[in-house]
Predict the structure.
Amino acid sequence: MRVLIAGASGFIGSALVERLTAGGHEVVRLVRRRAQAPDEATWSPAAGIIDFTVMDRVDAVVNLSGASLARLPWTKNYRGVLVDSRITATRTLADAMRKARHPPAVFLSASAVGYYGDRPGELLTEFSSAGSGFLAELVGRWETAAMLAPDETRTAVFRTGIVVGYGGAMQRIGTLTRFGLSGRLGTGGQHWPWISLDDEVAALLHLLDSKLSGPVNLVGPTPATADRVMNAMAERMHRPYTFTVPERMLELALGRAADELLLSSQKVRPQRLIDDGFRFSHVTVEAALDAMLSAPRARA
């Protein structure tokens, strides 16, 4: 396949490009500068500008655009960046596909488990309703933008949790742990949806060939609490895990991000992925952390 990727240089995008090229697929990267190679195409997502004819030359589009949710705190200005970097970019891609004479067969667009909001005590699948809060509203608008792709393009929005790999939120947690600054966040009993980087990429490859459309949860099959994730990291790095950061302190320091990222509880199940026959390489968060910490970049 020839796959067009927005966000190819990011944490997930870099790993996806590596796997696609190793598998014999051709990758075209969207870049925000003048294209300098045949495998690049220029766009300006903030301005809604892209050469829509690139859509005639690819079989699939993977949208990984979006400013990092792990950058804290979420100031008013940065909340605007989080919204614009997702919705405008996604609309730009969908609009270009609609203008193409022969639109791509597949569109995979990033989403997030933030769609479900804070739902302690519930088992959440793709058939669960939307939650409330800033993230839930953002994700709802993000997915709506993706669904503007043409009807002949199979569109799937993949709702990802914390990706356990050397990058993103887990890299920040790893840095804090390395300096002995890891501890229980609030009660620690809140569920954190997680998935290993290897399984995230493998699931995207699976979705390229699958017939699934609509929302698909990309999370590991075994739920884990924040306490389990943080403690497992500390154990593997031989660092202390002794203190507790009260919820109120987190809220004062980080505002809305504390409630919606760190303290929110989401027991999410990858129901549609499992039913579609996907096999996870890392079934528990401990196995995912072992893979992360044994990676060459983590050891460097």
User: Anything to note?
Assistant: Residues 91 and 145 are 5 Å apart (CA to CA). The longest helix spans residues 76-99.
